[in-house]
Specification:
5-stranded parallel sheet; Rossmann fold; about 45% helix; 11 helices; alpha/beta
Length: about 250
Amino acid sequence: MTLTSGRLPDYLVIGAQRAGTTTFYELLRMHPLIDRAQRKELHFFDRDYEKGEAYYRSLFPPRTTINGRPTITGEATPYYLYHPLVAQRAHALVPHAKLFVLLRNPVDRAYSHWRFQVARGNETLSFEEAIDAEEGRLAREDPDGYAHRRFSYQARGIYAPQLARWMELFGMEALRIFKAEAFFKRTDNVLRRAQRHLGVPVRRLPLSGRPAQRNSTGEHPPMNPKTRRKLTDYFRPYNEELYEMLGRDFGW
């Protein structure tokens, strides 16, 4: 085994939040040739960008070789997809990085996001109240602000313009976009495709034989059917835009 230093990530899991990115990252890094970062969500390109390249490099382990093959490393910060400046910043520093995106039905993603914020003590409004308040909350500050990070329930589910920023800079060949619902049900299949994208030998990774589990944030009743219909109607044109852009119908 040999060591070198000064490492930057080979891949980024850029989103979306509440779409299985934690499970995806933790399973992927079980591959013997994939090293993990200091932690899953580094938030360098959104929150800590001013700390500079040397700081970012320090968050990754030294490069190693195993049986003559170099290891790779990466990170997963699901806020990257939503933040309007991250794609440009990432391309300037790691233009050859491979990118992974997991997209979840934006209605279910929004409700899971709200449950997560309630569980963390950040949200006191009901889901319906939070949806109604979202536009006003987000209008008062920039994307680095408190509300954009915590209360962007609907905004984060408008995927097409978010993906367009990354596609324009990195090219479609750098991205692998997975439907989160497919990852939850057919975990092994998605992980095999991810490994091929990274150029590592494809293996059945530990624990990956079971379907991935959605993140749990405590007990909440199912979404009100009326609210679900309202949000389904709201997201329909945005989903159609996404399907047209990718040439894929996600069935949402």
